[in-house]
Every structure is written in structure tokens, then in C-alpha cells.
Amino acid sequence: MKGIRIDCAERRAFGLLFAPVMAELAARYWIIDSQSGPFSITDKPNFRELDGLLDTYFVETPDFENSSETLWRPGTFPKFADLLVVDEWTYLLGIDGPEEDALLKAVQISRTPRFSDEFFTSISNAHAVLLVYPDGWWEVYADAVDVLQRFANLPDASEVDSSVLVSSHKS
């Protein structure tokens, strides 16, 4: 699957880096897989308020209970973009549709081996957008050319292919 690589030697805040495409992000449900996150709020003076607000965006997903994956409603970005915890191999998967459809797609994609050919086929079939942070750069994958083009217009963007991720994650 064709994608876009966005180099960011410094760990720029997610919200700042992706500000030009935030409208694209705002409209989707998001699976977020971040070992240390997904959001850093415990050090904020308005922790209780943020915690309650995050609860309104969180989608209860029984299939994700024993994993680091969580599912979030549209509007999570840009609202919480600057609170996102980004660590090595953080990934976000944006899914369109009504909540019931998004939940079904999220579970289906989640059941495929991460970064396998089947995973990328599932993303394409769901018309989803994948953002993955291997460590030091972001990669963005989508089957829609217009979506990829919006990401390609970001600074330090270049073309990449998912086959590199697929081959690096084979057992």
C-alpha cells in the first residue's frame, strides 16, 4: 500500500505536526495503540475535568479490554491532540462511519496481525487511514489518493510503501 513518510527528527507535538490536516482527523473514529497512553492528563491541573471529558469520547470495546488498543469518537482530534502520548510504534487507525460500523471495522482490523499484508488489506477495505510512528518519523497509509495527497503536502513528507513495514514485522 502506498503511503507518506513524514520525517520529524524532534518529537514535535502531534497537534502541531498534523494541524494542517486536522479536519481529516477530526471526522473519524480512532483506534489508538500507545503503550504509555493514549493521553497524558494526570499531570494537568484540570485532571478531573479532562478525565470526564475523555470518557465522553471513549468507545467501550470489549474486544480491546486486554490490549493497549482503545477506540475514540470523532472530534478526539483536534480536542486532545496535544495530550496524545507518542512512543515507539504508536499507531492510530482512523475509521469512517456511524459508531456501530466503525466498531465492527475496528474489531475486524484489530484481529489481523499488525503490519501484515492482511492488516493493510483490511485497512484498504475499510477505507481507513493509518498513522504509525516507528520512532523518529510518521508513516501514513490510506487507499484514497486525495487523503494521501493532503498528508503529502506536510513538511518533510515523501512517498513510502507498506512493504517495508510488512517485511520488518514478519516472524
Features:
single chain; 8-stranded antiparallel beta sheet; 8 helices; 171 residues; alpha+beta; 8 strands
Q: Given the C-alpha coordinates, what overall shape results?
A: globular
Whole-number count of domains: 1
Number of strands: 8
SSE series:
EHHEHEEHEHHEEHEH
Biggest beta sheet attributes: 8 strands, antiparallel
Describe the strand arrangement of the main beta sheet, using strand numbers.
3-4-2-5-6-7-1-8
Tally of alpha and pi helices: 8
Helix proportion range = 25-40%
The overall pLDDT, averaged over residues, is 89
Percentage of residues in DSSP E strands: 15-25%
Radius of gyration: 15 Å
End-to-end gap: 20 Å
Low-confidence stretches: none
Structural class: alpha+beta
